[in-house]
Amino acid sequence: MDVVEAVSAKIGADRVGVRLAPYVTFKDMACPEIVDTILLAAKHLSALGVAYLHLSEADWDDAPKVPESFRIELRNVFKGSIIVAGRYCVERANEVIEKGYADLVAFGRAFIANPDLPYRLANQLPLSPFDKGPLFGGSAAGYTDYPSYKTALGAVMHSSDNGVA
User: Fold this and answer.
1) Mind giving me the DSSP string for the chain?
2) In angstroms, rounded to a whole number, what is the distance separating the alpha carbons of residues 44 and 40?
């Protein structure tokens, strides 16, 4: 809180956001007091007037789910914008927004693998799978090597024109 207060004093709380990770148990980070701690922090951050709270939700296959009761309580104590992230699909994103639990949904890995993600989502097009292999380097392949849907479709159409399947 000292850091948030100091930064807010310098640039204004309305230009500050805080990212927290409820229910993340990766690498033995499970804390039995995390929910109470996050709710207390959210109440304080709301009183400070920070612009947003960004929740990084656990996103591995058997990750703990964020209960609706936590979302409701968080919305009650934090009056700023709430952003959520963590393996969201369009349906789940729309659900948390429609229920008022979040104002925005972040699509991190999906954006890396699909540089035209808004276009694909708006047109209900298939998403390219995310490859975590080159995520932190190791070769020349990486973030900028995923094609847009139109580019990938054009490559498939061009190769089929040449008799290549």
Assistant:
1) -HHHHHHHHHH-GGG-EEEE-TT--GGGT--TTHHHHHHHHHHHHHHHT-SEEEEE---STTPPPPPHHHHHHHHHH--SEEEEESS--HHHHHHHHHTTS-SEEE-HHHHHH-TTHHHHHHTTPPPPPP--TTTT-SSS-SGGGPPPHHHHHHHHHHHHHTT--
2) 6
pTM: 0.79
- What tens digit of pLDDT does each residue of 1-29 get? 999 999 999 999 999 999 988 776 656 66
pLDDT in tens, 48-91: 999 999 998 876 666 667 888 989 999 999 999 999 998 888 89
Sign of CA pseudo-dihedral 56, 59, 63, 68:
positive
Using the structure block, give the residue that is written with the tokens 């309305």.
Answer: 14
Burial readout 6-21 (b: 16 or more C-beta within 10 A, e: otherwise): eebeeeebeebebebb
